[in-house]
Amino acid sequence: MQAPVTLHVAPTPRAPALVLRPWCAEDAAALVGISGDPALRRWTSLSFEREDEGARWIRGQERDWAGGLRFGFAVLEVTGDGTSPLLVGGTVLKNLAPGRPSAEVGYWTAARARGRGVAPRALAALTTWAVDTFADDGLLWLEALHQVDNEASCRVAEKCGYAYDRTLPATPPDFPLDGHLHRRRAG
Q1: Which of 45, 82, 107, 109 would staple 89 via disulfide (CB 3.0–4.6 Å)?
Q2: Which CB contacts under 8 angstroms, 24+ apart, belong to 93-101?
Q3: Runs of H (alpha helix) within the chain
């Protein structure tokens, strides 16, 4: 079992610090507000109308972490001016199993935070953590998968060293369009 961990990303001259931490019940209201974004609904499974739906999803994230099945992180901006951290995205390591040579990463950014480098900085932190934590368990590759029309996700993957590998056929309803598979060698 992997104990919960918090990752810290230093600020840049143009962007505040980020904190990546496991999802918690207090994130439900913000998650519901963020999930109304049409682009997010198009490219992810996040779609909550009510806070109890977000809370149920978060409980699932907590169970998956405890079971070692999926390691989902809320991505928060921390400004350092005394205001509460702001939920600006999410990132995840999934499909990980001892002896399995690859695992998948995922990431998304709230509409209000797009174009500010949140996703690449969060993915870079997740990638480093995944390699440092699971390389001894046989992890050789990390993979990112996105729909072919999600150009921003493609740029994030490439910026973080995930090279385009191939195009995979659609698998509706979960993946309605063809997708790009990007891969990065662990280590």
Answers
A1: 109
A2: 93/126, 93/129, 93/130, 93/142, 94/69, 94/70, 96/68, 96/69, 96/70, 96/71, 96/130, 96/134, 96/139, 98/137, 98/138, 99/137, 99/138, 100/138, 100/139, 101/138, 101/139, 101/140, 101/141
A3: 28-34, 38-43, 51-66, 118-134, 151-159
Can you give the pLDDT of all 187 residues of the chain as single tens digits?
Answer: 688 999 999 999 999 999 999 999 999 999 999 988 888 888 888 888 899 999 999 999 999 999 998 999 999 999 878 788 999 999 999 999 888 899 999 999 999 999 999 999 999 999 999 999 998 889 999 999 999 999 999 999 999 999 999 999 999 887 888 999 999 998 7
Evaluate whether 145 touches 161 at the Cβ level (below 8 Å). Answer: no
Instruction: Please say whether the beta carbons of 125 and 9 come within 8 A.
Output: yes
SS3 assignment for 1-33: CCCCCCEEECCECCECEEEEEECCHHHHHHHHH
How far apart CA 136 and CA 132 sit, in angstroms, is 8
Give the pair of three-digit tokens for residue 87.
């939920």
pTM of the model: 0.94
Which two three-digit tokens encode residue 4? Answer: 């919960």
Q: Which two tokens stand for residue 143?
A: 């993979």
